[in-house]
Design brief:
By secondary structure, the protein is an alpha/beta fold. 55% of the residues lie in helices and 10% in strands. The protein contains 19 helices and eight strands. It has helices at residues 3-11, 16-35, 44-52, 57-67, 82-87, 103-106, 116-126, 131-135, 146-155, 172-193, 199-222, 232-242, 247-267, 292-299, 313-316, 327-338, 350-362, 377-393, 409-423, and strands spanning 72-75, 91-94, 138-142, 161-164, 278-283, 303-308, 367-373, 397-402. The strands form two sheets. The chain has a four-stranded parallel β-sheet, with helices on both faces. It has a four-stranded parallel β-sheet with strand order 6-5-7-8, with helices on both faces. Helix 3 (44-52) packs across helix 12 and helix 10 (172-193) crosses helix 16. The longest helix has 24 residues, at 199-222. It is globular. The termini are far apart. The protein binds Double cubane cluster. Double cubane cluster is lined by residues 77-79, 115, 117-118, 144-145, 147-148, 284-285, 310, 341, 343, 345, 373, 376, 378-379.
Amino acid sequence: MTTDYRKMWSDLGIDLKQHDTLLNALSLIYEEIYLSQRNRPKGMEFFDFVVGDIHGIRVQELRQHAINGGKVVATYCVFVPEEIVWAVDAIPVGLCAGTQFSVPIAEEVLPRNTCALIKSSFGFKLGRICPYVQTSHLIVGETTCDGKKKMFEILAQYHPVHVMEVPNKKTQLSRDLWLGEVIAFKEIIEKLSGNKVTADKLAQATKLVNERRRALQRLYNTRKAQPVPISGKDALLVTQVSFYDDVARCIQQVNVLCDEVESRVAAGDGVFPSNTPRVLISGSPMAIPNWKLHHILETAGAAVVCEESCTGTRYFSDLVPEDGGTVEKQLKNIADRYLQIHCACFTPNEERLDDIVKLAREYQVDGVVHYNLQFCHTYANEAVKVERVLAKEGIPLLRIETDYSDEDVGQLRARIDAFLEMIRR
Ligand code: BJ8
């Protein structure tokens, strides 16, 4: 890392000692998990670079934007409508919350029996180790689950926070509430940035974000091929990076990768032998650098071919209609689109069950692994219904409950080996 970055980190109030330890650990893990893979697409070099420089150029870009008077808006959930942020020339950035490193820091304040994603994100702020958090002018939280909702109250004592109320049902009453939240969010973002959301700006922002969704859809489509042309680890990384990299650059790089990966499909070239068991992972999101389950599965001889999660299909499957119109009409389209995300915080949430079965068929999987972050009650309870639906469909399922630590890796490996043995063709 260059001296310039150290000055920038220091100006941002980063705890440099802790931060050095984090970056050194990340670089070692990345080498072991990512760079050890064979036959990777050349297009992954860009994403390797982005991770290698994770707190460098991108933070510098955001900081420059802030120095020029622009605003940076940080988020933790795919429910926050980023089109509105782009429409006022602010930059949204999805925060990482996938490392064990910040968990013990958070546990100094939060209860231990809180999910790792919540603790990891809070620990980043408390420990002053994330330059993205430090660069942001506002963190936007949501009421998706109780743990997050209450954590945001505490986080607000350390950083400006706005919480959007996400309803728990999809009735007309709930839709009205959510539309009101989206309109209120627009007003807060306008006030923060000093810019008005106009119909033209919102239409442009919608097209831009949709373009990224289309690029990710294109990448995921290639994973339906047999043999699969890209590893699950690499595909997950692309999605994770798209949460914080510049959107136009990301679209371009994902499409470059897709050109290459589609040629692989045409040539029948895969990253794993064609008899490799194909697995769909469904459940909690995997924020960067949470690569634990993918790594265990793929080093045990499986191919992860799809993620039904918010760092997978739930992030990009639905587009916002691009038919323009007034700001009010576009906000309604945005509100409707976001309410199609089938998070386990909804009751009932039958659409997610339908999605899992549909994706299992489309991606020709041999089995599903349900991924549950420990202490996440919404996904844990919903797993009961997932299990019943998949049993009815004759699709094998393995339920995993874990956190970010390495303590259970041996046990997970043993369970995954047994599962793969069972589903192997
Ligand atoms: S839309 S999945 S990104 S909330 S794992 S913090 S639910 S206790 S992450 Fe999520 Fe938005 Fe839903 Fe998606 Fe709580 Fe569960 Fe932790 Fe979770």
